[in-house]
Amino acid sequence: MNPVCSGPYQFKERVAQDRIVLEKFADYYNADEYHFDSVTYLPIPDTTVRLANLQSGDIDMLERLAATDLAQAEGDNSISVESAVSLGYQGITINVANGEKGDNPWGNDKRLRQALSYAIDREAINQVVFNGAFAAGNQPFPPNSPWYSTDFPVPERDVEKAKELLAEAGFADGIDLEVQVPNTTIPLQLMQVVQSMAAEAGINISITSKEFATLLADQSAGDYQASQIGWSGRVDPDGNIHQFMTSDGGINDSKFSNPEVDELLNKARKSNDQDVRRESYTAARAILNEELPIVYLYHQTWIWALDSDISGFTPYPDGMIRLEGMKKEEG
């Protein structure tokens, strides 16, 4: 691995599962705005360990501070906390028609997917797992987005409705669902809460933990029944929905296909008229809220924690760290 770079930093080394090191590229057009000679990225999956490393001075900054650690970080005078509402979402993608594993009751009967959605209390998830720091969601756009459709508010949990739908589909005695989950703390905690909620409706969720790259590969190949996964989001709404929901979409791992949805999302993609686009997305949502190839759960707030000696950091809603203008005062 020796990637070619054209930015303010160039690749130096990568040690698998340990670190990625970049070094400053002196010939970058505004190199003077980049004040670190090198940058080291450390993969630390455990959120508590990440925060402990920051507090001990072993790292200078962490991204994606767990909401459960927010109070602790804010109470530490040596740490600064920054946040921005995410452009994206988290949800459960269900294999509708991606190979043999999509040919099952969950893929073939939308009533089961509706039942799962009704069984979930999204606001309770926000409070229990994220200490109220995130936003409950049922769409690819967060509630503060101009593209969010108020015609489809976040549904209230309705266990009896979920049981009714299961019975209509022929599963009054319950049904199993296997959900693959990234092997990191937050997704596992999230799915354990969903697992408990779904069980009350008769949906027996088994959780299969996988390394993230493996999860993605299995999802693309159709080797899954359901997958807890999200999307970081894009500024233009097309990036949050078209490639996931159109028949030939490049990241349509559910393989959901509906000609009317294709037509609506293509119409939105081709138009510069914001009202036309909004109407198209809302019409598509009316269908997708019934079909539910993705059961949306929440919208993340990106939270960063930094050594208080670092200045010049600007939080962006795409969750990316821009090092331009950032400095660390040596104490």
Automatic annotation (TrEMBL):
Signal peptide positions on this chain: none
The family this protein is said to belong to: Belongs to the bacterial solute-binding protein 5 family.
SUPFAM superfamilies with a match to the protein in the record: Periplasmic binding protein-like II
Cellular compartments annotated: Periplasm
The name this protein goes by in its record: ABC transporter substrate-binding protein
Pfam families per UniProt: SBP_bac_5
Domain of life, source organism: Bacteria
PANTHER family the record matches: D,D-DIPEPTIDE-BINDING PERIPLASMIC PROTEIN DDPA-RELATED (PTHR30290:SF38), PERIPLASMIC BINDING COMPONENT OF ABC TRANSPORTER (PTHR30290)
Organism: Sulfitobacter profundi
InterPro entries given in the database record: SBP_5, SBP_5_dom
Keywords: Signal
Start and end residues of each Solute-binding protein family domain: 2-249
